[in-house]
Amino acid sequence: YGFQTSADKSIQEKNRLLVSEIKQDASFVFCTRGATLDDHKGIYANPAIQQVINEVLFKNKADGGLIWSTGYNPFPKAGFALVLTAMECAIDEWTSETREQISFKEDNYASVFENHLASLNDFDRATTKHKLLPKLMKEVYKIGWYVHNNVDTCN
Questions:
Q1: Hey, what's the torsion of the CAs at 86, 90, 95, 97, to 10 degrees?
Q2: Measured between alpha carbons, how far is 148 from 142 in angstroms, rounded to an integer?
Q3: Distance CA 64, CA 44 (A)
């Protein structure tokens, strides 16, 4: 997202403003952020989302996304909400003058998770006719499986 580690107060202020900007309307989930919610493009298409999923679940052939493929294909909605919650926690680490590690615990982030899950459910209901969320969840799994790992399905 462009955060920088620095003792320079102006850079620290830019980090704080960036946190505020990308958390407003959960704009960090969009591929392209605009000035307003209506200007954002590509909901749930920010490449960072897939990158986190790939790194956590599809990095090695022994990772969960590969071993338990039946549980991850399509990618579970709750798992997707959890990734968004973890990303928000990582963003929150930049709210102070310097980056501070925040413990990713249920007490701190259960309501954030519930909000992301509710937003996914709202999106699913709003796009039911086109089945966008199920298509997205299948694509997330497909990208994790094939692209990130270059898995040869013949062996």
A1: 160
A2: 9
A3: 22
- Looking at the chain, the number of H-run helices and the number of E-run strands are 7, 2
CA-atom Rg of the chain in angstroms = 17
Q: How many angstroms separate the CA atoms of 133 and 49, rounded?
A: 15
Q: What is the pLDDT of residues 108-154, one digit of tens each?
A: 999 999 999 999 999 999 999 999 999 999 999 988 887 655 654 43
DSSP state letters, 122-137:
HHHHHTGGGTHHHHHH
Cα separation, 135 vs 120, whole angstroms: 13
Q: Are 65 and 71 in contact (CB under 8 A)?
A: no
How many CB atoms lie under 10 A from the CB of residue 39?
11
For 125-155, b/e burial (b = at least 16 CB within 10 A) is eeeeeeeebeebbeebbeebbeebbeeeeee
Q: pTM to 2 decimals?
A: 0.87
